[in-house]
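User: Fold this; tokens only.

Assistant: Input:
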Amino acid sequence: MNLFDTIAAISTPIGKGGVAMIRISGNDALTVGEKIFCPIGGKLLSQSEHGKMTYGEIFEPSNKSVAIDDGMAVVFRAPRSFTGEDTVEIYCHGGILVTKRVLKAVLSAGARLAQAGEFTRRAFISGKIDLSRAEALGSLLEAKSEGQLRLARGGMRGNLSQKTLNIYESLRSVMTSIYAVIDFPDEDLGELSREQICALVQDAIREIKKLSATYGTGRAVTEGIPTVIVGRTNAGKSSVYNRILGYDAAIVTDIEGTTRDILREQATLGSTTLLLCDTAGIRQTDDKVESIGISRALEEMSAAGLVLAVFDGSAELCKDDLLIIDKLTGSDIPCVALINKSDLSQNKNTAERIKDSFKCCISVCADSGDGFDLLAKEIDRLFIDGSIDMDNDAVVTAAWQYAALELAEEALSSSLTELEAGTPLDLCCIGIEAAMSAIGQVDGREIGEDIVSEIFSKFCVGK
């Protein structure tokens, strides 16, 4: 990736539509734009006002006799553009062929095809956007639920950036005072006493702890909770799976052992994203293929973040049901027992035994959807902190952000111990510097190239 090249890409979805947009960015963006776009009226594109649309015709750079299309162009001059560079946006009609021909003309005029996320990466490098906002922008593009959208918008507004900046600046004031004492010990330049420094470090640790605590909610909303649906054959697992998804992804029949392999899909229930896993019905069988599926089901259950245990509420519990109950009641994995088929006459013994075995039991009907609103509330209660305002609070949503904050907390705790023990300040500052470096990773002040590349690789080519 050469960041001095002028780049271009189609920034709208490929397909038939009303309008398509081709974005050009870089030092030669205006030169490239003028080679393929001729405004009606005779003015050059470079003479256009910043941010004002100009109507004209789009040509191949080598042939101005026949237009490819007519459309609009907008010039954004550096640094007042998304990337911080000169940028030209060409709007043409949204046909597949015409859009590709316009892009081909732009590339022939001297631009190169942008790589995935390169426009946003240039915005980050030019200081137009920090890394946490870039991460939020990527989440916004991928959002599939209202909760994901709200968190992404909050991140783009800088909720997380501002919070980490406040912690960083507080620690910087501590370091300034410490360095003044170290460099000029006889001048009494340090503004903060050791007690005041300890108090500020303690405050920073508290703020980091509070911020780290939001990751549970951020992870549940954005990344998702690995959720395994288990139960004996014909308890209604696949029907529950289909109900949560909202469509028939799994085959449902009255034949035992219909589901033999693991089925995986992502779904949203309430505000929580579930990484759903439908498994083979647990039972004793001589079928080798089904036995493999049952073994996989038990493995998935042991590694899950949430288990939905499905029981047929209209039937007596069998030995397969009891096996599932025995495995789950001895586990620390969060579990919700679903007493399915509530539309049928319920077996009193089954209901009582399940309620005695599980902290949370919900009667549902997978066929009609009854009870699934209660299931959504219960899952949100388990994984979503209701005190968090997703629109306005700083919320950690990425594992690498959480890891950086954990590292900062550990380093500050070590420094606080040294400070309270009376250790010389020049030794105490090592942990504070490490914490500042870790906090700086969250918004990209100090970050490894591998993380930067991973973030921007998730973007589409035109973003």
